[in-house]
Specification:
The complex is a heterodimer of chains A (582) and B (158).
Chain A (H helix, E strand, L loop, with lengths): L16 H30 L1 H22 L2 H20 L2 H38 L1 H13 L3 H9 E12 L5 E6 L8 H18 L10 E4 L2 E7 L3 E9 L4 H27 L16 E3 L8 H38 L3 E9 L2 E8 L6 H8 L6 E7 L5 H12 L5 E6 L2 E8 L1 H11 L7 E3 L3 E3 H14 L2 E3 L12 H20 L2 E9 L7 H21 L7 E5 L10 E10 L8
Parallel strand pairs in A: 8-9, 11-12, 11-13, 15-16
Antiparallel strand pairs in A: 1-2, 1-5, 1-6, 3-4, 4-5, 7-8, 10-11, 14-17, 15-17
Helix pairs in contact in A: 4-5, 4-9, 5-6, 9-10, 13-14
Chain B lengths: L1 E2 L5 H6 L9 H5 L2 E10 L2 E10 L19 E6 L4 H17 L4 E6 L11 H7 L6 E3 L8 H14 L1
Parallel strand pairs in B: 1-4, 4-5, 5-6
Antiparallel strand pairs in B: 2-3
The chains are: A alpha+beta (582), B alpha/beta (158).
Chain lengths: 582, 158
């Protein structure tokens, strides 16, 4: 084959049809496997379900690796998780409330206990100090020295109090954490921390102290600053009064715990200046104070009584209210779940619960839900606007109330089609078909599986009559003697049946089937069977049964060869109401 | 902040910082600590400025104060060419103590340019080499704020 792309060769002859086919063949051989692979890849790329599977297979490991290598995944997911929590709370706050309830309860109790203890202590002290002679003396001292009354009280009533704690990064002097005792002002603690570091450096440099020695105590009037140094952090406590030496051990222990719990955080802080949060309570335990033992005063019991009354009153008022709120919340939850009830708004007004919404008159009474939730009815103002719920069970119940189906009939809803099954009268069916179209939520009707009760009754009577047979002696066409009463009853019933069938737009057809036993030829047997049937038809016709409704047949069944009788078979034909009736 | 005596270190920061300490600290313990808040691209950065006592033939800067520093500001006086050499020497000592950290040279007193004895070539030859230079005036406030922004940006990207 010539090379069609080589410019060095003379011009190639024009390609013939055979050449074209070969080219096509060659191309197919060369390119098709690649093309198939490319198409498979394209299909894979275009199918999002495949991505889902692949991504889901590697997602947990990918998350684990990325979160181990840096914090950017956390930073990226943070806002998403925040939004998800917000959305979840907007949709239904109850799960979150349930989740944090066990945490909030103890925390609130502790906060209340602490606040009350402080209140009692401060009331106690204030009452004592303001009105006593000692209080007057302290006020005079405050005025004389220019100190605040609080400072004077503190200096006399406390052995020592740790007013501030500085946790300082040892190398940079940057402040990592700062705590103050209540009512202690501390402007610019970060600058103070740096200055303390500078002072310590200054002292060490000035006296050529070794690197590990440092200035760990400063005294300034009533204030003492104690500093403890660790490998990467310094903990400095500003103390008013005379702290016991044991407090230095406490400082050391606290600093050791800080190092143990936050060594990595401190290193990171040193490298990047990024703040971190200390474990709760870690530093707080070093923020202590010790009061001077005061002689117990006679008035103390009054304060305890007052505190007890306050606690009792708060508890008395708050606990039932909290319980009531929880019961009401339970009721609102139940109402939200209740079919046919739509809760619009809930809240509290003037100490009473308020709930508004919509209610289908067929739905359960919300008062019953309130009762079940244990909320007293007097506590709640509720306003329920009536509406029509289109839930299937409500559509069916509404249909049943309007159409009153007979006991044997059953209504169901399939999509928006009202389906009737079972047995009902034609009259009910006509009325139901007319009324059901007006029902909200019903788009179509299907009554085809509904049997007419008249048909069922006729069939039942016919089946009863079919169990009757009239017997004949051997070889005879005369009825066995003594069957006249039976014949009379039969005629009476058949007449009624024919009449009732006509009333239900049906035509009854009575087959009188004669049979003869196996004596004689087939021909004589058939003749005898027909004669017997004819005898019965005549007898019944004479008793008023319309002859047109009856026909005589010979029984050809095998079992008939042992009997000498005429039995009945009754069938019904539905009459077309538009045709003239026979 | 490091530099020779009377180049204007304290004046540079005085107008732009919060301080709770007296300036006499410098004379006593050799450092005064101030705070400067810089807002940069919506991020607020709190700088703790260690304004070190000026270096001259009678007193030396305490290099232990430089430990843990994230950035250094060298200050020289445009009207006194010898202060550039001091800045250069200070930079060498500082590098021994804290290594290479983002630094800036402020050539101060642009309000007195008529009596300046330095030009760019002189600064390159005699000042701390490789340190970006910002010409400032503590008196008029010219470019002082810019200089802090410049340093913070370099510290943040370091």
């Amino acid at each position: 084959m010539t090379d069609p792309v080589s410019p060095a060769l003379p011009p190639a002859p024009a390609p013939t049809a055979a050449d074209g086919d070969r080219w096509q063949e060659l191309r197919t051989l060369l390119v098709d496997p690649e093309r198939a692979r490319i198409e498979a890849l394209e299909r894979k790329l275009a199918n999002p379900n495949l991505h889902l599977n692949e991504v889901s297979a590697v997602l947990p490991e990918a998350i684990r690796r990325r979160s181990a290598s840096d914090g950017r995944l956390g930073a990226a997911l943070g806002p998403v998780v925040g939004d998800a929590i917000k959305a979840s709370i907007r949709r239904d706050p109850q799960p979150l409330v349930d989740a944090i309830f066990p945490l909030m309860g103890p925390a609130i109790r502790r906060a209340i206990t602490n606040a009350l203890a402080e209140l009692v202590q401060s009331l106690n002290t204030t009452l004592e100090d303001t009105l006593s002679l000692r209080g007057m003396t302290w006020r005079w001292e405050a005025m004389r020295t220019g100190k605040s009354f609080g400072e004077v009280v503190l200096s006399h009533s406390l052995l020592f109090r740790v007013e501030q704690l500085f946790l300082i990064h040892r190398e940079s002097g940057l402040l990592m954490e700062h705590l103050t005792a209540p009512n202690v002002q501390s402007p610019s603690p970060d600058m103070v921390a740096s200055m303390m570091t500078a002072l310590r450096d200054f002292a060490r440099d000035s006296f050529r102290a070794p690197e590990h020695d440092s200035l760990d105590s400063l005294e300034l009037g009533a204030l003492t600053v104690w500093a403890e140094s660790g490998p990467t952090a310094v903990l400095a406590a500003v103390i008013r009064g005379k702290p016991p030496l044991s407090y230095r051990e406490e400082l050391q222990r606290t600093l050791e715990d800080v190092h143990r719990a936050h060594a990595d955080d401190i290193d990171r802080f040193g490298a990047s200046g990024v703040a971190f949060r200390l474990s709760a309570g870690l530093l707080e335990r070093a923020l202590v104070s010790q009061a001077k033992n005061r002689p117990r005063t006679e008035g103390a019991w009054r304060m305890w009584l007052l505190a007890a009354v306050v606690v009792g009153t708060v508890g008395w008022c708050a606990v039932p209210s909290v319980m009531e709120q929880r019961r009401f919340d339970r009721f609102v939850d139940a109402a939200r779940r209740e079919p046919g009830v739509v809760v619009g708004s809930t809240g509290r007004e003037n100490g009473r619960f308020v709930v508004t919404g919509l209610r289908d008159p067929l739905a359960r009474d919300p008062a019953a839900l309130l009762k079940a939730s244990g909320v007293s009815l007097e506590q709640v103002d509720s306003k329920w606007e009536p509406y029509i719920a289109l839930r299937p069970e409500f559509v069916v119940r509404r249909a049943a109330l309007l159409l009153l189906p007979p006991p044997m009939a059953k209504l169901t809803l399939v999509g928006d089609t009202l389906v009737a099954t079972g047995v009902a009268s034609a009259a009910w069916r006509r009325e139901a078909e007319r009324l059901a179209r007006a029902l909200p939520g019903v788009g179509a009707l299907r009554f085809t599986a509904l049997a007419d009760s008249a048909d069922i009754a006729l069939r039942a009577r016919a089946t009863d009559l079919e169990s009757i047979s009239l017997n004949f002696p051997l070889g005879s066409t005369t009825l066995v003697v003594g069957q006249d009463p039976q014949l009379n009853t039969l005629a009476l019933q058949l007449r009624a049946l024919v009449q009732d069938a006509a009333g239900a737009q049906q035509q009854a057809r009575i087959d009188l089937i004669g049979s003869a036993d196996s004596v004689g030829t087939e021909q004589t047997r058939a003749a005898l069977s027909i004669s017997r049937g004819a005898r019965v038809r005549n007898a019944l016709a004479a008793r008023g049964v319309p002859a047109t409704a009856m026909q005589v047949l010979s029984d050809s069944a095998d079992g008939a060869r042992t009997s000498r009788q005429v039995r009945l078979s009754i069938t019904f034909l539905r009459l077309d109401p538009l045709l003239p009736q026979p | 902040m490091l530099g020779a005596t009377s180049v204007g270190k304290t004046s540079l920061v005085r107008r732009f910082i919060e301080s709770i300490f007296s300036e006499k600290y410098q004379a006593t313990i050799g450092v005064k600590i101030d705070r400067k808040l810089v807002e940069l691209d919506g991020v607020q950065v709190s700088l703790l400025l260690w304004d070190l006592q000026g270096e001259d033939e009678f007193q030396r800067v305490r290099m232990s104060y430089l430990k843990g520093a994230s950035g250094l500001i060298f200050v020289a006086d445009g009207t006194r060419p010898d202060t550039l050499a001091t800045a250069r020497a200070l930079r060498a000592s500082a590098e021994e103590t804290v290594g290479v950290v983002p630094s800036l040279l402020l050539l101060n007193k642009t309000d007195l340019t008529e009596s300046w004895g330095v030009d760019d070539a002189f600064v390159d030859a005699n000042g701390p080499s490789g340190v970006p230079v910002v010409r400032t005036s503590a008196k008029t406030g010219d470019r002082v704020e810019d200089a802090f922004h410049h340093l913070v940006r370099r510290m943040l990207s370091a």
